Amino acid sequence: MRVLVTGATGFVGRALLSRLRRDGHHITAWVRAPEHARALLGAEVALVGAAEGLGGLVAAMGNADGVVNLAGESIVGGRFTRARRKRLEESRVHLTRHLVEAMRSAPTSRKVLVSASAVGYYGDRGEELLDEASPPGKGFLADLCVRWEEAAQAAEAFGVRVLRLRIGVVLGPGGGMVARLAPWLRLGLGARPGSGRQYVPWIHLEDLVSLIATALPDPQYDGAVDAVAPAPARMGELLDGLARAVGRRVRLAVPGPLVRLALGEAADVLLSSQNPRGERLRELGFVHKYPTLAAALADLAALPSQA
Question: Model-level pTM?
């Protein structure tokens, strides 16, 4: 296939491009900084710069069989100020609308759009068992995910198969939660936010990449899909496991009210609980290489970069 990817220079994007190239696909990346992207992605990936505007994106769409939309500024990064909310919305909702408009304007119809969303769609749901039919939650993050998915769904109106991946915390080397926490954990400075009992849906990077690669040519993959492992972990369990992977223990805890005092509504990233089990993936017959947290952590512990 000829695949156009946004967010190609990110943690998941780089791993996905490596897999797609290995599988023989031809990749074009839509990027904001072409020189930086060329250094990261290599000469085999065609680049389209955001500075080329809608016309450049439409032209790239004309040569694509499918689109993978992974773009989005990191949710982790301090309080949700007005300026930060705007950046989060622009990098997700507005960019996805722009992408869909380019798909609509392209000279030939696209076959598939695989678009990222997040388990934040469900809000804080405590112990409730969730699946893709569960209603959205409340709050900024849930609303952001709803509008993000609606922007992608608009492509269905002109015959595109749209897959909305509600992605959990991605565990893998070189980025994401592991890269953010490992330096603190190695120093013995890890701390459980709140009770540590909140559910954290997660997925190993290799499984997420495999899911996207599987979904691109397979028409069974459409609608909303929880991109999570079948066994979500509690926050305390996850942090303890990551600490053990670097030879440490988590000895500290920060009460939930203090987390909220420091971060405001952004504390939802750390304190909210979602408990989806990947029902659609089970129905589709997708097989996780790392179905349990123990298996994922064993893989991370075996990597020299995580030691």
Answer: 0.94
What is the C-alpha separation between 209 and 286, in angstroms, rounded? 12
- 237 in Cβ contact with 171 (< 8 Å): no
Longest Cα–Cα distance of the chain, Å, equals: 58
Partners of 167 in the β-ladder: 118, 227
pLDDT in tens, 218-270: 999 999 999 999 988 999 999 999 888 888 888 889 999 999 999 999 999 99
Supply 31's token pair. Answer: 């990027």
- 31-43: pLDDT as tens digits: 999 999 999 999 9
CB 160 within 8 A of CB 112: yes
- DSSP state letter for 90: I
What's the rounded Cα separation, in Å, for the pair 122 and 274? 7
Distance CA 257, CA 2 (A): 49
Domains annotated for the chain, with CATH where assigned, are 2-170+201-228 (3.40.50.720)
How many Cβ atoms are within 10 Å of 293's Cβ, its own excluded?
A: 21
C-alpha to C-alpha distance for 110 and 103, rounded to whole angstroms: 7
Place of tokens 């060329």: 38
- Containing H/E element for 115? strand 112-118
Can you tell me whether residue 248 is helix, strand or coil? coil
Q: 229 with 288: CB under 8 angstroms? A: yes
Q: How many CA atoms lie within 13 A of 109 on its CB side?
A: 9
**Which residues pair with residue 118 across a beta bridge?**
167
Q: In sequence order, which residues have a C-beta less than 8 Å from that of residue 187 and are 6 or more positions away? A: none
Find, among 154, 136, 135, the residue nearest to 145 by Cα: 136
